[in-house]
Design brief:
The strands form 2 sheets. Strands 4-3-5-6-9-8 form a 6-stranded mixed beta sheet. The chain has helices spanning about 25-35, 40-50, 70-75, 85-90, 120-125, 140-145, 160-170; strands spanning about 5, 10-15, 60, 75-80, 110, 130-135, 160, 175-180, 190-200. About 30% of the residues lie in helices and about 20% in strands. The chain is globular, with a radius of gyration of 16 Å. The chain has one domain (about 10-200): Rossmann fold (3-Layer(aba) Sandwich). The longest helix is centred in the first third of the chain and has 15 residues, at about 40-50.
Length: about 200
């Protein structure tokens, strides 16, 4: 079983996967049901407003899932590795491959519950997007992470304290310009939302 390795001096832990996670159709369909609920629609509206406080530009939703944020935003593009997500994105004519679209790398990026899934988040940060918005689980300690409902070996790889996340982002040239707990008002637990601006 995958093991969480905690780095207290860095403020985060890594739970390297021991097998590939299956982002299958039922996984995306579950998010589609959640996104189509009253709470889901209100949550995506709040995410759109959070982004709009900082930029009026088009954005790329990394880990677009069922594409609810993209529909709510109206001008967003998206990327995902899941088969069903790709089908939806192509049907909406909103698919962008963030790893290949070099001319669009300055666009703001959103990572709603996706940043923690990455094996190497620095590869994404190195694409030098102008802003990065995210909602992500935040923990007080290794012990907190291990008992949290967000502890999902093979699916979630990175587990950050708030200080650990801010330091990780700053090391890649991103400064935090806003933090918000607005998603907890919709009943979510142990998550925070952030806006980071590329400073270098």
């Amino acid at each position: 079983m995958a093991e969480l390795i905690w780095y207290p001096q860095r403020g985060y832990g890594v739970c390297g996967p021991d097998k590939a996670f299956n982002y299958n159709d039922p996984y995306i369909e579950n998010f589609a049901r959640l996104g189509d609920s009253l709470r889901g629609r209100a949550l995506n509206k709040a995410r759109v407003e959070f982004v709009a406080r900082h930029t009026g530009d088009n954005v790329i939703d990394f880990g677009a899932g069922a594409c609810d944020f993209i529909r709510a935003h109206g001008q967003a593009y998206g990327y995902d590795i899941a088969r069903k997500s790709k089908v939806i994105l192509h049907d909406l004519e909103r698919f962008i491959d963030v790893w290949e679209a070099r001319d669009l790398r300055g666009m703001p990026l959103t990572c709603w519950d996706s940043f923690e899934h990455l094996k190497n988040p620095r590869e994404l940060l190195d694409l030098r997007h102008s802003m990065i918005f995210m909602t992500i689980p935040i923990f007080e300690s290794c012990e907190h992470a291990l008992v949290s409902h967000h502890f999902k070996p093979n699916e979630h790889i990175y587990y950050f304290t708030e200080g650990g996340l801010r330091g990780y982002m700053l090391d890649s040239g991103y400064e935090m310009v806003e933090r918000s707990d607005f998603e907890t008002r919709f009943g979510r637990k142990d998550v925070m939302s952030y806006a980071f601006h590329r400073a270098s």
